[in-house]
Each structure stands twice: as C-alpha cells, then as structure tokens.
Amino acid sequence: MGFPWAHGASSPVSTMVRTSVLKNIIFLEHWYALRVAWSVLLCHAPGRPWTGDGGLCYSGNMAMDNRVVLDGVKMAGELRAEVARRVAQLRDDGIVPGLAVILAGENPASVSYVTAKEKACAEAGIASFAHRLPATVSQEEVVSLIRQLNADARVHGILVQLPLPKGMDEAAVLREVIPEKDVDGFHPVNVGKMMLGEPCFLPCTPHGIKVMLERAGVQTAGKHVVVVGRSNIVGKPIANMLVQKPANATVTVCHTGTPDLSVFTRQADILIVAAGRPDTVTADMVKEGVVVIDVGVNRIPDATRPKGFRLVGDTDFAGLSQKASLITPVPGGVGPMTIAMLLANTIQSVLKSNENHETGVKYGT
Ligand code: NAP
C-alpha cells in the first residue's frame, strides 16, 4: 500500500517519507484504509513482519505459547512501546500528540484510572492535559471546559472519566466532545460508525479485547463467541465488532434476562464476561478448551491486603483456568489493554488531524 514502514524501511524514517505516508493515507478509502493505517500504527514495529492483512498481527512470540494465562500487562507494554515509537517520529516532525483528561470528583477508582492514564501518556511521550475538578463542579462548567478543549489544537483526544458526579447528565456531557477528538469512542457518531463498520474511534476496552485476541493468535472467524453483559461500553460494542468481517464470529449476547446463562456459556468457543459481578461464570458453566476474556474488575474484602481489599474479575479464575485453553487474569488482563488502546486512539487522531490539515478533507466524510 505504499507504506515504507510496512515494508521494513529502516527506522527512523525520513521526514519526507513520513510526510508522504500521511499524504498516502488520504487516498486510501473506507474501512480497509483505516485498518491498514491502524496496522501500520500498532502492528508494524520495526523488526516485526508486515502481515498486510488489514490489521491482524499474528506474532508467534506474542502468543502465550503453551501457557494458559494471557498476559495483558506484557501485551499492553508492547503496544505502548509501539505507540511511543510513533510518538517519537511525530515529535521529530514537530507534532506533539496531546490527550486531555477531565476528572470531576474524587471517586477512588477514577482517581487511580486517571493517574494510570497520565503516567502512560508521559511514558509514551504524549502530552497530557489533566483537569481535576471538584465534585461540586457544575455540568455547565464541565461542558464549557470540553468546548475549550475541542478548539485547542494541542489536544488531539479528550477523555471524560466516568462516572461523573451525581446529578450530571453523562450522555449529554459526552456528546459535547467532538467526534474527531472522542478517543474513548463514546460519541453517538462514533458508535454509529462502529455499528456500520465505518472508520471511527473504537471504544478502548472492547478494542483492546479484539486486539488481544488477534495478537494471541485466537481465530474468531467461524467461532461461537458468547458475551455476558450488554453495556454500551463493553458488551454491545465487543459483540458488534466481532460479528463484523473480518472477525466473522457468530455472537450470542447474554444479560440478566437470559433464563439459564450456562446453556449459552457452555457453547462458547470464546467467552467474554463483562457482568460486574464476581463468579458470574464458574468452571461447570464452560466447555474444555474455551478462551476466556474476563473484563470484570470487582473489589472484594481481603483483610490480608494493605488496602483491605483485592481485585477479582467476573469469573472463577482458579476453576476456569483448569479448563480454558487461554484466560485473562484480573488484574493484569484486559485493564492494561484499555489504556494502551486509548494511547493508540490518540495517535490515530493525530494522523487524522494532519490529514485534514493538509487536504481540507473533514474527518468522517
Ligand atoms: P454494567 O454496565 O454494569 O453492565 C453489566 C452487564 O452485565 C449488564 O448488561 C447486565 O445485564 C449483565 N449482567 C450482570 N449480571 C449478570 C448475570 N448474572 N447474568 C447475565 N448477565 C449479567 O457493566 P460494564 O460497564 O459493562 O462493566 C462490566 C465489568 O467490567 C465491571 O466489573 C467493570 O468494572 C469492568 N470493566 C473493566 C474495564 C477494564 O478496562 N478492565 C473497562 C470497563 C468495565 P442487564 O443489562 O440485564 O442488567
């Protein structure tokens, strides 16, 4: 496709060549084009073979060999290193990617997520603009800040940490972030485009799951994927992504209205659990060899831990790991991938904004 990175050009590539790469992106069309750009961004680190498959990278040493546990920390670290290399190249061209994070209130989990995101930005060389607001901030003030950030050329991505303080209309606030900077992929425009299979920012957690499966070498095509949970941020989008080509899975979505969950979980070749409840799926509810992606993050009391709690997922990890061919741990599975995808989306936004700058082509048209 004319991408020097994609054919093993030495790194760092020259400024001229990189400029030409940005221009080439303009001529690529539709979803395939974005997937190729995405592959270039995420998958083609120097020294890694170009697969040319529009986004799927199967790298032997990234699969977990014979081990059953899918190490999200390691995989996310590799992704973040790839993002950092891209950032370094952009910085050589005088472009500094920027991510703004808005945190309203002091919800402990949110504070810790935002801190982790800021740290990840710093490590990747992405400028982070942190806006930590008191819980008493009004919706109008948050909206006003978002509008400023929408207009700020230094900011390529805007993240509004959820939950917002009680009384705020989260959906209305999220709609204020312009789709071009919606690196969380929550704006209805991006959600709609995702549904249609058009280029857009994909929401970070489900996208992280998809990349995780791809990079671990898990084939989804022709497989039965069972998703437990139908939230807008995990269940619905991951089901939607995996049912589309080229993922090409047959997908079943379960929820609290599903009469007997185990009837469906036992059929799963790949089981994705995002229920927000420990032990929602236990070993007796799955078949041998299933691939388990546990999205849940639950705090349960544990007097032996300094903080008095520990984190567990939504599945019985000990039991399931006896039957699963691959399983993600909690912590250290999906969570780190979510942050890595946020950084990657920010770089994707930089590439798009440069494309717009050079051509006058508006993103998404
Ligand atoms: P959510 O909005 O609470 O949705 C939970 C979904 O699970 C709902 O659709 C619910 O069904 C379904 N559900 C709950 N119990 C069930 C059961 N026993 N059987 C079948 N379905 C059941 O949660 P979420 O935002 O998707 O998050 C899910 C979990 O993932 C949470 O633990 C969250 O902390 C974690 N999470 C982790 C990350 C990460 O980066 N690691 C990111 C996002 C979320 P109904 O619709 O019928 O109520």
Relevant terms:
365 residues; alpha/beta; Rossmann fold; five-stranded parallel sheet; three-stranded parallel sheet; 10 strands; 13% strand; globular; disordered N terminus; disordered C terminus; binds NADP nicotinamide-adenine-dinucleotide phosphate
Provide a descriptive summary of the structure in words.
- The protein has 365 residues and is α/β, with parallel strands linked by helices.
- The protein has two domains: 22-77 and 200-338, 3-Layer(aba) Sandwich (Rossmann fold), CATH 3.40.50; 95-189, Leucine Dehydrogenase, chain A, domain 1 (Rossmann fold, 3-Layer(aba) Sandwich), CATH 3.40.50.
- The protein has helices at 15-27, 30-42, 72-92, 108-124, 139-151, 170-176, 188-196, 204-215, 235-243, 261-265, 317-320, 334-359; strands at residues 98-104, 127-133, 157-160, 224-228, 250-254, 270-273, 291-294, 298-301, 309-312, 326-327.
- Strands 5-4-6-7-10 form a five-stranded parallel beta sheet. A three-stranded parallel beta sheet has the order 2-1-3, with helices on both faces. Strands 8-9 form a two-stranded antiparallel sheet.
- Helix 4 links the parallel strand 1 and strand 2.
- The protein is globular and about 50 Å long.
- The relative contact order is 0.14.
Catalogue the ligands. Answer: NADP nicotinamide-adenine-dinucleotide phosphate
CATH class of the largest domain: Alpha Beta
Q: Whole-Å distance between the termini?
A: 21 Å
At CATH's second level, what is the architecture of the largest domain?
A: 3-Layer(aba) Sandwich
Number of helices: 12
Helix-strand pattern: HHHEHEHEHHHEHEHEEEEHEH
Number of domains: 2
Oligomer: single chain
Number of strands: 10
What's the mean pLDDT score?
84
